[in-house]
Design brief:
- There is one protein chain.
- By secondary structure, the chain is of the alpha+beta class.
- It is 29% helix and 36% strand.
- It has one domain: Nucleic acid-binding proteins (OB fold (Dihydrolipoamide Acetyltransferase, E2P)), CATH 2.40.50.140.
- It is built from 5 helices and 7 strands; from the N terminus they run H-E-E-H-H-E-E-H-E-H-E-E.
- The chain has a 5-stranded mixed barrel.
- The longest helix has 14 residues.
- It is globular.
């Protein structure tokens, strides 16, 4: 009976978007995880999926297209990109992308404040 309860709790966590940490240094998370528990992921490498918006001033990863449409920056992350990454991602504006990089809860972006910044180390497809 105890094992069934543990399995149920585990599956419930997966269903509700529990983070998946590969080790102490790398976690696959949602933007909600980073917003609600920034101290847990600060300075850690994270893999996160979101709706990408690029403009000349900044690059943001939003929770979804609705948040981006209304410029709700508190539901977004700033992305610190190299010039090459910026060129690659410019074509993806208005699409969902997968990002890997180091999360910094104290860097709230440029201009409008966001939930933090991800210094991007890898780009992927969702």
């Amino acid at each position: 009976m105890k094992h069934i309860l543990v399995c149920l709790l585990f599956l419930t966590g997966l269903a509700y978007g529990a983070d998946r940490c590969i080790d102490e240094a790398l976690c696959s998370v949602t933007i909600i995880h980073l917003i609600s528990n920034p101290e847990r992921y600060d300075k850690k490498e994270v893999i996160v999926r979101g709706y990408f918006v690029y403009d000349e001033n900044q690059s943001n990863l939003y929770l979804d297209s609705e948040k981006a449409k209304h410029s709700l920056s508190e539901y977004s992350l700033s992305l610190d990109l190299t010039e090459i990454e910026t060129q690659l991602l410019q074509q993806k504006t208005g699409e969902y992308v997968l990002i890997q990089g180091a999360f910094n809860q104290h860097d709230r972006g440029f201009g409008v404040p966001t939930a933090g910044t991800v210094v991007v180390t890898r780009l992927g497809s969702p």
